[in-house]
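User: I'm putting together a teaching handout on how sequence relates to shape, and I'd like one worked example. Could you take Outer membrane transport protein P1 from Helicobacter pylori NY40, show the sequence you're using, and then write out its predicted structure as tokens right after it?

Assistant: Happy to. First the sequence, then the structure tokens directly below it.
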Amino acid sequence: MNMGAGWRDTNTFRLGVTYMGKSLRLMGAIDYDQAPSPQDAIGIPDSNGYTVAFGTKYNFRGFDLGVAGSFTFKSNRSSLYQSPTIGQLRIFSASLGYRW
């Protein structure tokens, strides 16, 4: 089904795993994302891409300490706006929680 200026329905495929120990949790995921916009869409430099993510959470004395990271890699695509960093996304996070 086409929408608007050539936009189309797409698929995203995701796979995630979690190891749950007594006080440690390890998580990992990978996904493949298809771009909904056509190659020649002006100003929309989206493309198919992969994301790899990981995380860990440690529980101790009522506290939860977590860290995670995510890396997105996009396929090459031509655009009116060129940048050496186009097509990459890195996200890092940390968390601290307490349960009472």
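A couple of points you could highlight for students: The mean pLDDT is 84. The two ends are 51 Å apart (CA to CA).
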